[in-house]
Amino acid sequence: MISDIERQYAIEQFYYREASLLDGRQYQQWLSLVSESIRYVMPARVNALVNNRQRGEEAMIAIDNELEGSDGLGCPIREESYAHLFVRVDRAYKMNSWADNPPARTRRIIGNVEVLDHSDESVRVRSNFHLFFARPGSDNFIYSGQRNDQLLMIDGNFKIADREVIMDYANIDVPTLGLIF
Amino acid sequence: MKISDLVSDDAAYVSRKAWTDQRVYELEKKGIFAKAWLFLGHESQIKNPGDFVQAYMCETPIILARGEDRKIYASINSCSHRGLPVCRADHGNTKRFLCPYHNWSYRVDGSLVAIPQEKLLTNKPDKSVLGLKAVPRVESWRGMIFGCFDESVQSLDSYLGDMRFYLDAFFERFDNGIEFIGAPHRWTINANWKLPMENQLGDVNHGPFLHSAVIPAEANEEIFSVGWSAVPEPGHGATFRLMPEGTDNAHVAWGMEGMGAILGGAEIQEYLFEIQAKAAERVGNIRSRMKGLTYGVYPNLSFLWSNTSFKVSHPRGPNKVEYWSWAVVPADAPDAIKKILRTNYSSFFGPGGILEQEDSEAWMQQYLGSNIDFADDKPYFYGLGLGEEKPHPDLPGMLSVTANEYYARAFFSRWRSALEAVNDSRELIASSKQVSADDI
């Protein structure tokens, strides 16, 4: 059994390594951190009608009210599997992936890493990110969001088995939400 | 500069100014967005009394709602008192919209219910004339709701004309029609509104090149060999593959090419085969062999059949567009099937789509290219396939191979006429004032 502090340290190190691979454009190596059964979801975010009967309660302005995720019959922004992520990674190394030619410069800061739940095989972790994104010929952008992950412990290494990315947009004024967050 | 200088008589040349000039944009509002049928939403989004969604007509915010009388209403989302938007949610169901400033309240049909201040006053205002401004014409076709600011506009049916033949090739495949699911994805692109429109109106010609990192070569070969570009009316367009007689279902069925069908397993494949098996009976032999690509409805609505989404290119000045898109699914499909089908849209298109990111980049770069100095004597060439389009014995409109840019020439001819029809618009005085790159 490892202590809570050791677990926290291992997870944070894993996220730093992951961020470093993504900022270093080493997406093929990143893919090796991902379980082949991964579910990668980015809910859509809407301006919801406030429910009168919930006034005075936290539920009235709960973030969940704004999300169209994969469970409902709305339309999430992304609902992807390993195959989708593989195509994205594959595209990055082609001559004609024009939106990334030349590629953007990115810098991810991962923080507020909270372990929500854990067993010997699996942990559920919430973390926040800020991602600076400088696109040649265009502009600089900041992406801000939260990740709700399930990480599996496989042969002593973490693998990302489930990731839900909650973006903090009101209006989407970034070039793409198709990055790996 | 004259309006006629923006587009040559044969429409083989289109000026850079058509994309960037603020005065051209003001004329587009008067000549096009004040006159044409504009897409507002789909009836499946507002099934019950009190249901509403937001929409836009050009830059004007609209509330589209199902009234207590079950009729459809479109009103401008701006209070009659001080102009604030009275509807602040993207969609929902409500009895009243409340203006935050002084709490004037409205029914979803736009009629004014209450002015809280009036009880303190002797002369009561006439509330019957103080409702939200109604969009004067609202009509539906196959559940698609359009509005028009011009009361004297032709009927929606005749406006769509033979475009209905091509739209029905998709819509009529399903026993209970289609529905839009979820709120629209909406995002801004620093581009002129006409380029996203042109892209879907008939420009499958860019696919094999801009998207070659992702679209497989076989798919492009199929478009080259059996692809058609149809222009049923100038300004509308449809592109599709017309598969030969006897093509098996796996190669003609709508949806089979998407990631959803490839990864979704037996359940989704069976569903798509069932739809295709009934297609000839429902839409006739020739239309059952159509495997659609992109559609456009003048001036700014697109339907991407291959990835089943509707898109609207809402202008926000000459240099910015707010692009909206919705996933479209058969209304009576089981929920599990709808969830798989929606990924055929979101994986490739929308703000996170793997193909979309290349399109947005191209549209943004086209704006920058249009807004440079010292190149106004070099209009864009729109002459590919000039004069090679012709009628077809079984398909309405003018038909051509997909590399022919007739779809765009027809659009820009109609666009030029619409601008010329605006009073006192024929002289567009040349000036050095352009929207600068710093403004975008």
Overall domain count of chain B: 2
Considering residues with a beta carbon less than 8 A from a beta carbon on another chain, report the largest interface and each chain's count.
A-B, 39 and 45 residues
Distance between the amino and carboxyl termini of chain B: 24 Å
| Oligomeric state, counting identical vs distinct chains | heterodimer
CATH architecture of the largest domain in chain B: Alpha-Beta Complex
Q: Pairing-aware structural class of the strands and helices of chain B? A: alpha+beta
What value does the average pLDDT of chain B take?
94
Q: Could you please say which CATH topology of the largest domain in chain B applies here?
A: Naphthalene 1,2-dioxygenase Alpha Subunit, Chain A, domain 1
Number of helices of chain A: 3
Cα(first) to Cα(last) distance of chain A is 31 Å
What is the gyration radius of chain A calculated from CA atoms?
Answer: 17 Å
CATH level-4 homologous superfamily of the largest domain in chain B = Naphthalene 1,2-dioxygenase Alpha Subunit, Chain A, domain 1
Helix content of chain B: 25-40%
Q: Taking strands numbered 1, 2, ... along the chain, how are they ordered across the largest sheet of chain A?
A: 4-1-8-7-6-5
CATH topology descriptor of the domain at 4-41 and 80-167 in chain A? Nuclear Transport Factor 2, Chain: A
Q: Which regions of chain A contain 5 or more consecutive residues with pLDDT less than 50?
A: none
CATH class descriptor of the largest domain in chain B: Alpha Beta
